[in-house]
Amino acid sequence: MGLRASKVLVLGGGAGVAAYVWPNPRMDQQESFRWDQDGFNHGPFAFELDPCDKYDFAGTGRSNAADWIRTAYHDMATYNVADGTGGMDSSIRFKEEQSRAENVGDSFSNTLRVLDRDASSYVSIADILALALIISMENCGGPEIDYRAGRVDAMEPNVAGVPEPQNDLDSHIASFARQGFTQEEMIGLVACGHSFGGVQHDAFPDIVPDLGDPNNTHSNAAFDSTFVHFDNNMYVEFMDGTTANPLVVGTNDTTNSDKRIFSSDGNVTMRAFAESPTLFASTCASLFARMIDTVPRGVQLTEVIKPLPVKPHAFMTTYIGNGQLTLEGDIRLWNLTENLNRTVRIVWLNSDGSTSDDNAVELLHSENQVGSALGGRITSMWYSLHNATSSQSFLTLDAAKSNSISKFSVLIDEGNGSGPRVEDQGGIGFRIEDTLMWSSSSCAPTFGTGRLDIAVRKGTSPSRVWVEVDAFSFDLGNVPIEPNAYNASLVEPQAGDDEPYEIWRVDINGEVDLFVDYGIYAEVNGVRIMAVGVRNGGDLDSCTDAPESPF
Ligand code: HEM
User: Fold this and answer.
1) Which atom of ligand 1 is nearest to the CA of 165?
2) Which residue's CA is minimally distant from atom 25 of ligand 1?
């Protein structure tokens, strides 16, 4: 089936209009972190929350989820609505902020040790902290929370301003007003946050004694009886007088900040939360979204990131010589359940716009190719262009005849007789850049030198070809995450006229990092183009094993 037929089907099929058009490397990465939470091709968060009392450090009684939620709040709480400074900008990563009395405890350094390595030039550390909060909530009983991307990492600490338990009620009201929240919203936000975790002896020995419990070596006195799960139990327990929340029934009333805050409107909000779990959940969803969207003035966040209904993932083109290239990758179908009768095919247009009946291939799927989000409330099904029986990619295209590929559509047939529906981003198609791509002759250094070979279609005449890699450090401190560029040079002499691609090369002298992704770019007629797919340094053959460069 050709693309012309596909388009007709799309118009009749009413496919949803996506929020952004694939490919868009930044949004693709953000969307994946936000929605590919668990299972096949999962992102970095939900794994650390399974089960919800998982704690990556020594001792018992604490959880990653509680640390992550508290960290996001303490990062945001420096916001000053009057001058637009502070807010979610990951300034909590600076040791100077962490050493303040208002940030006592190791929640923040723990959180950053687990998560900051997932940041990149596409996803800031502040975005990571926001994602960690929402995915903790969503995977541990809480509601879906809107997520926008684009937070910018601060380069220095913010002015202090996180509320502390010994502050009086007027200070708390003033502090939340400075952060941009009313008194009623303050009650809600504290109530929502304190659905998780508790107060630990190490950080607050005056509030919580050493509990001497071998199953709770941190002596973490929980806010409610279900402290690794989002629910309204704390408010039920608060209203019926059975609460053990150490910030409500602590022996020193000065540090009973939750008690003062919760009862500051005559228990109106708490009573409503106790009576209605759904009101509580929806209030928390909107307050948390507001909280993570509290960013320094001038920072522009994206639209709320919705899942693409059909999403190519880890697509990559590779030139393998002799006029041939391969295309590999996976396709995610969002919010579907398993159906072993379903077939998924891609059909594509050649680079010159022509097509033929041969331009279609069925994708592979096995029962372990299932992803999930929102704690399993949504499942996604994955289909693969990889050939299960061979290490070579399934789709091999002949570029010599200049038929290559320019874009494709996805045809999904549920096998129920209703015929295939077509997904092509509202008629745009999924565009594949075949002007430049990796060459399979790229290799990592075994001892010293390696090379990144880039195939550029002859006649393209780029003014520049280069490789980018994120500057990366496990201790980011005040180092911005920015891409470093390495310019490529045209390899001379080139192979014969029948080779449709020429090779450009970056010589790497001990600099191939096995843990980072390399992206390739070219500037053509003043326009920057990016190859489909990044290649991880760890996936490169060593130079002794790599195929010889054709040139
Ligand atoms: C007046 C405002 C607040 C005060 C005085 C306050 C105070 C505290 C204190 C003293 C702890 C114990 C920390 C530890 O032992 O490590 C704590 C824990 C926590 N707070 Fe707050 N908090 C406030 C607001 C919030 C807000 C708005 C959120 C989230 C939106 C939040 C989320 C958390 C979480 C999740 C924990 C549990 C940490 C864990 O168990 O590791 N707090 N809070």
Assistant:
1) 5
2) 190
Identify the residues whose C-beta falls under 6 Å from ligand 1: 62, 66-67, 69-70, 73, 105, 107, 163-165, 172, 189-190, 192-194, 196-200, 203-204, 220, 257, 261
State the Cα angle at 292 between 286 and 296, rounded to 5°: 130
Within a 10 A sphere around the Cβ of 406, how many other Cβ atoms? 18
The pLDDT-based confidence of 6 (bands split at 50, 70, 90) is: very low
| Cα distance between residue 318 and residue 441, in whole Å | 10
**Which of 73, 260, 262, 291 most suits a substitution to test ligand 1, by most atoms within 8 Å of the C-beta?**
73
Atom of ligand 1 nearest to the CA of 204: 15
How many CB atoms sit inside 10 A of residue 451's CB?
Answer: 24
Q: Does residue 149 contact residue 302 with C-beta atoms inside 8 Å?
A: yes
**Residue 208 CA to ligand 1 centre (angstroms):** 14
CA 288 to chain centre: 17
Residue 70 C-alpha to ligand 1 middle, in angstroms? 6
Q: Where are the domains of the chain?
A: 3-21+308-313+325-431, 25-292, 436-539
Q: Measured in angstroms, how far is the CA atom of residue 463 from the centroid of ligand 1?
A: 54
- Asked whether the domain spanning 25-292 has the same topology as the one spanning 3-21+308-313+325-431, the reply is no
For 218-255, how does the pLDDT look when each residue is reduced to its tens digit (9 = 90+)? 999 999 999 999 999 988 999 899 999 999 999 999 99
Give distance in angstroms: CA of 260 to centre of ligand 1.
Answer: 15
Hey, what CATH topology would domain 3-21+308-313+325-431 get?
Immunoglobulin-like (2.60.40)
**Closest residue (by CA) to atom 29 of ligand 1?**
193
Residue 482 has pLDDT above 70, yes or no: yes
CATH domain 436-539 topology: Immunoglobulin-like (2.60.40)
Residue 73 CA to ligand 1 centre (angstroms) = 8
Architecture of the domain defined by 25-292 = Orthogonal Bundle (1.10)
Assign 3 a pLDDT band (cuts: 50, 70, 90).
very low
Residue 6: name the closest of 440, 383, 355 by CA. 355
pLDDT, tens only, 254-263:
999 999 999 9
Residues 173-223 pLDDT 10s: 999 999 999 999 999 999 999 999 999 999 999 999 999 999 999 999 999
Angle subtended at Cα 501 by Cα 497 and Cα 505, rounded to the nearest 5 degrees: 120
Q: Report the distance separating Cα 71 and Cα 112, nearest Å.
A: 9
Which segment of 133-137, 144-148, 389-393 scores lowest on mean pLDDT? 389-393
The minimum-distance atom of ligand 1 relative to the CA of 227 is 40
